[in-house]
Amino acid sequence: MKPYIYITRKLPFEAIAAFREKYDVKMWEHDDIPVPKEILLAEAKKADALLTMVSDKVDEQVLNLAANLKIVANMAVGYDNIDLTAAAKKGVAITNTPDVLTDTTADLTFALLMAVSRRVVEAADFIKNGQWKSWSPFLLAGQDIHHKTLGIVGMGKIGEAVARRASGFEMNLLYHNRTRKPEIEQILGAVYCSFEDLLKKADFIVCLAPLTDETRNMFTRKVFQKMKRSAIFINASRGHVVDEQALYDALVAGEIAGAGLDVFQKEPIDAGHPLLGLSNVVALPHIGSASVETRTAMMNLAIANIEAVLDGKEPLTLVNKD
């Protein structure tokens, strides 16, 4: 009897064609609607492996029902959607997809920074709505990026990739991280500093920190008030690192100049969310790694992790190594 694998989103047939020959594979038949919890629970009872998305909550209830489950392969870098403690008790391997999305996510992060600072979305809407009647010196004038100071909160691999892109704009680089990165300091001239100093000195603040107990709601109203009034805030990590009401209030009060957001506390975000009504906010639907090449690589890595575990081998990107 072939091992049973359940995939929580509809993936391209060609991506799993070889997979189907070796295993009994079933997919949720939608690529834009999350699998309902009751279906995930039912499938987990039967599955030897689950291939999940970051929006799927693999909690203790799911794991306790999964009598045969050996691996949850999360198609994301983050894995805060999975109860690691419950997985450890059940002896279930948890894997993610790091590295393959680093540069793609860094590209998108820097694109957000540029879009907010140069008012790209505002300008595109301005011309599409027929509002461009004449040229004027300060029509939709934004902020320069070159030679400014970029502060990166969370200098992991994606943070390092963003720093490399910023060096091409001759930006001054500050960073705050749990550990120092001497190599990045030496190669790019990045300067390690406290969170407080970074807030005060940076013209652009990019959050790329993972979601932990320490980073949850780390960006509060008081934090935004410590930034320059001209500062632009970018979040491409997890929505829950930001108090969204505090961000809205800071933007409305002019305490910071703008924000670029690829993640939110609740996803999908409601169309009536107050942040979406602000012209100095560029909001994207969590597309940091959304290039065809990278999403394909993420699928392939998740599949490779499942194959390894079901073949009795060590997975390529094991999260819960203990």
Structure description:
- Helix 10 (221-225) links the parallel strand 9 and strand 10 (232-235).
- Helix 5 (102-117) crosses helix 7.
- This protein has helices at residues 13-22, 37-46, 60-65, 84-90, 102-117, 120-128, 157-167, 182-188, 195-201, 221-225, 244-252, 292-310, and strands at residues 4-7, 24-27, 49-52, 71-74, 93-95, 149-153, 172-176, 191-192, 204-207, 232-235, 258-261, 281-283.
- The strands form two sheets. The chain has a seven-stranded parallel beta sheet with strand order 8-7-6-9-10-11-12, with helices on both faces. A five-stranded parallel beta sheet has the order 2-1-3-4-5, with helices on both faces.
- It contains twelve helices and twelve strands.
- The longest helix is centred in the C-terminal third of the chain and has 19 residues, at 292-310.
- It has 322 residues and is an alpha/beta fold.
- It has two domains: 4-98 and 292-310, NAD(P)-binding Rossmann-like Domain (Rossmann fold), CATH 3.40.50.720; 102-283, Rossmann fold.
- InterPro entries: D-isomer_2-hydroxyacid_DH, D-isomer_2_OHA_DH_cat_dom, D-isomer_DH_CS, D-isomer_DH_CS1, D-isomer_DH_NAD-bd, NAD(P)-bd_dom_sf.
